[in-house]
Amino acid sequence: MKKMLIMSLVAIFFVGCASGFKSFYNPWFNENYFPQEAYLKEGEEPVLMKTSDLDAKYREVTSRWYWCIGNSGFNGPNYSENAVYRSIANFSKEVKAKVVIWSKSYTDTRNGVFSSPQTHYHSYIDAYGMGHTYTTTSYSTYSYSIDRYDYSAYFFIPIPEKYRMQYAPGFTVANLSQKDRDTYKQNVGCKIITVFENSVAYYANVFHGDIITKINGRKIYTTADFVDIRNASNIGDTWKMTIIRNGKPYKISLRFGL
Questions:
Q1: Which of 42, 48, 32, 47 shows the shortest CA–CA distance to 102?
Q2: Which class would CATH give 164-255?
């Protein structure tokens, strides 16, 4: 009885594993935004990977030429790994993701007490031989302790080869955030986010976190400057880049292309 009551309490307090990933899914793009050949096909099974370091695993997956199409996360009790896998696999088929990375991390423990009413039925016979019934209610108090966890997942599809040239010479960039400026003591430039495997940039030893400050002598203030140079480049053009890595300037030379 006590176990049943606690399980009911869990159902009230927490999001169900089966619905959690779906209920809190955050699509990054409109449905079918990417080419159809990139999405999971009917009858295919997604690849699911559990990780303790989502940031590192995210970079690893995207560097293998994958687009991230969305993410999801929620807080809940200690679901079994099998339950989480089933939930993610089923939802991945809905959004047609081919690869999913996910993590589970303990957040806190919820403790408390609750009362459960119990109804008691009574009967008696009065002085005239008449039977009567009445009820009384008593309350049983139970304590509970439920561990809570954060569940997070990112959903990916592969980048087909014919769509990869837009990322030449093999990396993506972003503007510096305020945290980046504080960390690197650098106000201008653009930060390299993803370096794609087996690309020109990959073999030139360009790394995630490098900050580009110049390309062919032109100062890079934001990603707009980077995009201008990339759009004006032709296959085989030489890029001479100045980057900041670990607070020190470096020179990198590469041929534009993939």
A1: 48
A2: mainly beta
For range 190-217, the mean pLDDT? 96
Q: How far is CA 230 from CA 60, 81, 115, 161, 225, in A?
A: 24, 45, 67, 19, 9
Confidence of residue 174 (pLDDT cuts 50, 70, 90): very high
Instruction: Spell out the domain ranges in the chain.
Output: 2-110+145-161, 164-255
**DSSP classification of residue 176:** P
Please list, residue by residue across 144-183, b when 16 or more beta carbons sit within 10 angstroms of its beta carbon and e when fewer do.
eebeebebbbbbbbbbeeeeeeebbbbbbbeebeeebeee
**CA gap 112, 146 in Å, rounded:** 9
Mean pLDDT of 169-176: 96
HSE, CB side, 13 Å, CA atoms: give it for residue 9: 19
Tokens of 100: 């999913």
Cα gap 229→219, rounded to integer Å: 11
